[in-house]
C-alpha cells in the first residue's frame, strides 16, 4: 500500500481501536436507530452491534477501493490526484481536530465523502468502460450512512463530492488508454460480471415503497 493510503489506513485503525476500547459509537446508536428511515431493514437481533460492524466494514474498505480506482485511472490516463489529495487531507485532519473524540463517529463523514466520490467516479466511468470499476455497489450503503449522518451534513458532503467531480471531469478517453484500463481491471475480478450490493452483503436492505403498498393491501 502506498504512503498516501497507509496514512488513511492508520487513521481508520485508530478509530476502530477507539471503538473497541470504549464502544462510544455503538452506545450512541440506541438513540439514533429509532430515527432511521423506516425503509432501512436491519436484523432484529442487536441492531446497534450490527450497524457498528457495518460501519467498520464500510470504513475499512476505503484505502483498498481508493487505491484500486487510483491505479485504474492511471492506466486510463486520468488524473486521480485531486481526489486522492482531498480525501487524504480530510482523513489526516481528524486527530488534530478531535484528539479526544477520535472514533467511528468522528471518521464517518470522511468515510461518506470518500464513498460518495468513488460512487460518482464509477457512475461516470462505467458507461465508458462497459463495466463497474468498484468491487461492490455502494449505493444502498451510502444511503444508510447518509441517514446516520443526518440530511444537513450529508448534503454538505454531497456538494463537496460534486465539486471534486467537476475537477475530475474525464474527457473522452483515448481508445488505447481505455483498453489499458479494462485490462488492468481484469486483474481485480474474482467473479467477472457480478457486482454485489455492499449493504446487502452486510445483511442490510432497503424496503421499497411499492413493497410497502403491497403489504398494506394484503391486510
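Q: What amino acid sequence fits the structure above?
A:
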Amino acid at each position: 500500500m502506498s504512503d498516501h493510503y497507509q496514512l488513511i489506513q492508520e487513521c481508520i485503525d485508530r478509530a476502530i481501536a477507539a471503538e473497541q476500547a470504549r464502544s462510544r459509537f455503538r452506545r450512541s446508536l440506541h438513540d439514533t436507530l429509532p430515527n432511521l428511515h423506516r425503509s432501512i431493514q436491519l436484523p432484529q437481533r442487536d441492531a446497534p452491534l450490527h450497524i457498528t460492524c457495518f460501519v467498520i466494514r464500510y470504513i475499512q474498505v476505503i484505502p483498498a477501493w481508493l487505491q484500486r480506482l487510483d491505479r485504474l485511472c492511471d492506466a486510463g490516463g486520468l488524473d486521480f490526484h485531486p481526489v486522492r489529495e482531498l480525501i487524504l487531507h480530510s482523513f489526516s485532519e481528524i486527530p488534530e481536530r478531535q484528539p479526544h473524540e477520535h472514533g467511528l463517529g468522528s471518521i464517518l463523514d470522511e468515510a461518506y465523502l470518500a464513498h460518495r466520490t468513488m460512487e460518482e467516479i464509477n457512475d461516470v466511468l462505467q458507461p465508458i468502460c462497459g463495466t463497474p470499476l468498484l468491487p461492490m455497489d455502494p449505493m444502498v450503503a451510502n444511503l444508510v450512512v447518509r441517514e446516520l449522518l443526518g440530511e444537513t451534513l450529508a448534503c454538505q458532503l454531497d456538494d463537496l463530492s460534486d465539486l471534486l467531480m467537476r475537477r475530475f471531469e474525464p474527457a473522452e478517453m483515448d481508445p488505447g488508454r481505455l483498453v489499458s484500463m479494462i485490462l488492468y481491471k481484469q486483474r481485480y475480478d474474482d467473479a467477472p460480471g457480478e457486482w454485489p450490493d455492499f449493504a446487502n452483503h452486510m445483511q442490510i436492505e432497503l424496503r421499497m415503497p411499492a413493497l410497502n403498498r403491497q403489504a398494506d393491501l394484503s391486510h
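Q: And what stands out in the fold?
A: The longest strand covers residues 40-41.
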